[in-house]
Amino acid sequence: MAPKAAALVLVLLAISGSRADVNPDEVASVIWKYFTELGSNAKDTAEQLHQSELSKQLNTLLKSNLQSVSAYAEDLQQRLEPFAMELQAKLAQDSQRLKEQIQRELQELQAKLAPYADQVHQQIGTNIRQLQARMGPYAEELRSQVDRSAGELRQALEPYAAELRERLQDNAESVQAALSPYAERLQRQIDGGVEGVKQRLSPVADELKAQVEQSVAELRRGLSPYAQEVRDGLERQLQSLSAQMERAAEELRARLAASSEELRAQLSPLARELREAASGDAESLRQRLQPLAQQLEQRLGQSLETFRQQAAPFGETFGQQLVQRLEEMRSKLDSGAAGVEDHLELLEKEVRDKVAAFLSTAAPPQN
């Protein structure tokens, strides 16, 4: 087996040989990046690739979700080798073929749609306006939920700053004894608050993704009367548009989760610094705690405001991305010229479908 395919087998064996509750989209995303790394860095050995930063990210993802099923590994390895070779071939061989095919289809599509160019242009314009109108309320809802989440978390955490100031009035021994439990409570409140933020924002992201699917379906219906003779070419363009929009929706979800985790990373040092202060001698405890007590409320406010400013506009940005994708499709239908990476979107979709299908059949036997 070629070094690149051998490296891929190692990665896929880690995935499927211990499959439990794995999200196929997450795994496919990591594998797609892994494929593109392989394609652009053929000089690396399998071992070097396996130790790459990308592979480490994959291993981190898997270790957090998987359980070992070593008895199943031998059978899986036999099934993984042809699977890995097929996926590698898709990237290595189909790329140029897809690029040429899409360009031919676009030119044919443009020629067939030429008599209806104005209607098609207007139909996509109508879809753009409908999408903008539909996204507006959801973007506002996301901004509102971010603001509400930040405000509620601030209300939950501010009493801790007041409590710390009050505790400084006690004797040093009492403060030191109470400080570690206090820091633990603060950390639990931070963790619970961040998880609450995620839970509050996730349904809005789901709704935005649902609007994407509805928008593509409406565009498909609107264009179908003009494309009876080039149905396959139009469908490929719509699939590409759908893939772009769905990826934008997943990126939105990932950005919201990342912003929430960044908020946790900014707040957690407060609890850690308090635990560290408690570990010193009692005599200098007040000296160590005084600056923390003065800064705690301010640092809480700054972290929450940073989160709010960062996450609140995500809905508007998402809507702008979707409109841009529709405008790009309209431009392609007008000109008959494919985008530089149109074929990669379809190739990635094939990889995702195959990964999902493989994982659905690679589950370990039930005990």
Automatic annotation (TrEMBL):
Residues 84-119, 231-262 form a coiled coil. Keywords: Chylomicron, Coiled coil, Lipid transport, Repeat, Secreted, Signal, Transport. One of its GO terms (cellular component) is high-density lipoprotein particle. SUPFAM superfamilies: Apolipoprotein A-I (SSF58113). GO terms for molecular function: cholesterol transfer activity; phosphatidylcholine-sterol O-acyltransferase activator activity; phospholipid binding. One of its GO terms (biological process) is cholesterol metabolic process. It comes from the Eukaryota. It is found in: Secreted. Pfam families: Apolipoprotein. Residues 1-20 form the signal peptide. May have a role in chylomicrons and VLDL secretion and catabolism. Required for efficient activation of lipoprotein lipase by ApoC-II; potent activator of LCAT. Apoa-IV is a major component of HDL and chylomicrons. Belongs to the apolipoprotein A1/A4/E family. Homodimer. This is Apolipoprotein A-IV. It comes from Junco hyemalis (Dark-eyed junco).
